[in-house]
Amino acid sequence: MPTAEGSSGIVDGGRGHTRQAAVDGASSSRGPRLPRWVAADSRRWAWPGLAAVLLGGLGLRLWGVRQGLPYVYNADEGDHFVPRSVHMFAAHSLNPHYFENPPAYTYLLHWLLALYYGGGTAVLRAYELHPADVYTLARVASALLGAAALWLLYATGARLCGRAVGLLAAAIEAVAFLPVFYAHLALNDVPTLAPLTLSLLGTAGVLRKGRLRDYLIGGIGLGLACASKYTAGIVLLPLATAIAVRYLDDGDRAAKRRVAIGLSIAGATALGAFIAANPYALLDYSGFHSGLVHQSTLSAEAQGKLGAPKQGGLLYYLWSFTWGLGWLPSLAAVGGVLTVWRTERRLGWLLVPCALLFLAFMGVQGRYFGRWLLPILPVVCLLAALFIVRLIEAATRRAGQTAPVHFAIAAVGVVATLAQGLVYSVHSGLVLSRTDTRTLTRDWMVANIPKGAKIVVEPVAPDEWAREVMKGTSTARNPYRWPKYPSLFSRVSATGRLEPEPGPEAGIENYETTLWPVLIAYYEANDYCWVITGSTQSGRAFADAGAVPHAIAYYRALARAGEVVYHASPYARGEGPVAFDFDWSFDYYPLAYDRAGPAMTVYRLHGGRCGR
User: Fold this and answer.
1) With pLDDT > 90 as the criterion, what percentage of the chain qualifies?
2) Of 569, 574, 563, 573, whose CA–CA distance to 602 is shortest?
C-alpha cells in the first residue's frame, strides 16, 4: 500500500503506479507532484508553517473571547452547556437530564471546572458570584479544541495528500469565519471539530497503511464526535469507505482477516467512546431517546422563526459557504471534487460522498443556520486545498525551474485562498473586543434612568441585565434595579383588545406576536415610561411584516409617542443598518459592524402618568 506522510513515491494518475520522487521527504505518495524546491525542504517549511497556522488560528479564536461578559447575550450559550455542567454539581449527579444536544462537551466543562476550582462547592460559588470567569474558561476550552482540530486536519491532509495539502487545509480552517467566530462561544459546534477530525485522521491511516491503531483512532474519534454533536456522525461514512477499500485491495486471506479485526476494533472503540462520553444514553435511555426525538423534530419542522429565510436549506447552505468558508475556497472545493475523482477515485469515495450526503440531509431540514455546516468543513477544506495545490503545481511546472518564481506563484495562490477568511476573522476579533451595544445601553441607563423606574425591555438581554450589581453577591439573585414589564406574556387578545390578565407566555421566537399599538397606552397608564428596543427583535417583524402587521404598527406608534433619549449603534460611522438575518445579525459578519450587539434604542414616553 502507499505510504503516509513523508513517503517518496507519487501516484501516477491515481492508478496505483509510483515513480521515484526527486528527493527524500517529498510529499505523500497520494499527493500532487510539487516543485523540487518544495519537496526537498518539505520538513523545513512544513513545521514552521504549521506553527504559524496553529498560533495564528488560536490567536484569532482567543481575540475577544470575553465579549459581552459579565452578561451572556447568546441565548444558546446561556441555556445549554455551561449551566448544565454546573448544575450537575448542585444535583450531585452526572445525569445531565438533557439530551437535545449530546453531553460530551458538558462533561468536559464539568471536569475542567472541578479541576480548575478544586471541587463542586467552589464551582457553584464561582458560578454564583463570578459567572464571567466560568464562561471565560469554557470559551477558552472551545478555542483550544478548535486549534487542536487544525493540527489534526494538517496531519490528516498530510497522510492523504502530502504536507502541502495538509498545511493549506489547516490554514483555510484556521482563518475561515465560521470556525473562528463560534470558537468564541461555549457551544459544542467548534469543540466537536477536534474528535471529528481525529476520526478523519484514523480514516486516512486506514486507507493508506491499514494499521490496527488507525482503526482504533478512527473509532475513538467517531464515538467522541457523535457524543459531542449528533450530526458529526457523518464521519462514519469515510471510515466505513476506507475499511471497504482496504478489504477490497488486500487480496490474501490474512490481510482480509486483519481488516475484519480492524473493523471490530473500530466498531467497539466507537461504541465505547460514545458511551464513555454519554453514559446516560444507557443509564437513562428513556431520557436520551426522548431528547434525541425532540431534537430531530425541531430540526425537521418548518422554520417557525419569524423573519427566517424561506429559500430552502440547500440554497442557504451553499450561500453560507461563500462567507463562512470563503468564495475562493468554496469554488476550489468544487474543483477538488473533480480533481480527486480524476486522479484517485478511492480517495474521492472517501471524501466526496460524505460532504454531498451531509448537504442533502441538512438541506431538507426545516431549520438551517450557517454554523450547522461545521461538521463537514474539514472535508471541504481538504478538497479545496488539494485543488489549490494542484493549480500551484501546474503553474510552477509551466514556469520552469526558477525557485523564486515558484515561490511567488505559491505565495499568490495561498494569499488569495486565505484573504477573505483572514479579513473577516480579523474584523470579527475587532468587533468582539469592543463593548457590546447592550452593555453600553445599560451603562447609560444606570446614569440616566432613576433606580426603581419601570421599564419595558425586549428580550435581547438576560434577566440579570436589569438587576442590581453588588460586590460579593449574585447578580442573578439581586433585586431588580428597574422593575420590568413582563414582555413575554401577551396582554392583548386576538382582536387587539387589552385583557385584564396576561395570557400564556410567549418565547423569543414569537415575542413579536404579543405587540400591539394599544400597549403604548397601557405603558403610559401604568408608569412604564422607558421602553428599550433592540433590532434583533424588531428586525424579525420588519423582515416578515405580513405575518405580524400589528407589531409593525406598534413600532411605528412607539416612534410617534416616544422620545428617543439614547441610541447605541453596532455599525461603523457612516454605515447603514444590515438587513435582519439569523446568521449575520448575530455573528456580525458584514464589515459594516463596528461592535457586537443589536441597534439599541431607549424611548421616553410622556403621555398619561408618564407626563408627570
Assistant:
1) 69
2) 563
Distance from C-alpha of 194 to C-alpha of 143, rounded to nearest angstrom = 11
Residue bearing cell 494569499 = 415
- Where helices occur in 209-344 by DSSP H, the ranges are 212-228, 236-249, 253-277, 280-283, 285-300, 313-321, 327-343
And the C-alpha cell for 462?
A: 438576560
pLDDT band for position 594 (cuts 50, 70, 90):
very high
The full length of the chain comes to 612
Whether the pLDDT of residue 471 is over 90: the answer is no
| Cα separation, 449 vs 445, whole angstroms | 5
Distance CA 305, CA 504 (A): 18
Lowest mean pLDDT among 283-297, 428-442, 575-589: 283-297
Per-residue pLDDT of 129-178, as tens digits, reads: 999 999 999 999 999 999 999 999 999 999 999 999 999 999 999 999 99
Residues 6+ apart with CB under 8 A from 338: none
**For the residues of 176-196, what is the DSSP string, one character each?**
-HHHHHHTTSSSSTTTTHHHH
**Residues paired with residue 530 on neighbouring β-strands, in sequence order:** 455, 604
- Cis preceding linkage at 70, omega within 30: yes
Mean pLDDT on 110-125: 95
Q: Which residue has the cell 424561506?
A: 310
Rounded to the nearest 5°, which phi and psi values hold at 524?
-65, -30
Query: Which residue in the block uniquely carries the three cell numbers 501516484?
Result: 11
Is the CB of residue 465 less than 8 Å from the CB of residue 438?
yes
Rounded Cα gap, residues 452 and 449, in angstroms: 9
Percentage of residues of the chain with pLDDT beyond 70: 91
Residues 6+ apart with CB under 8 A from 121: 89
CA–CA dist 109, 88 (Å, integer):
11
CA atoms within 13 A on the CB side of 438: 26
Task: Report angle CA 583, 585, 586 to the nearest 5 degrees.
Answer: 70
CA 175 to chain centre: 13
Q: What is the pTM of this model?
A: 0.90
Quickly count: other Cβ atoms within 10 Å of residue 248's Cβ. 11
The three grid cell numbers given for residue 277, joined into one nine-digit string:
462520553
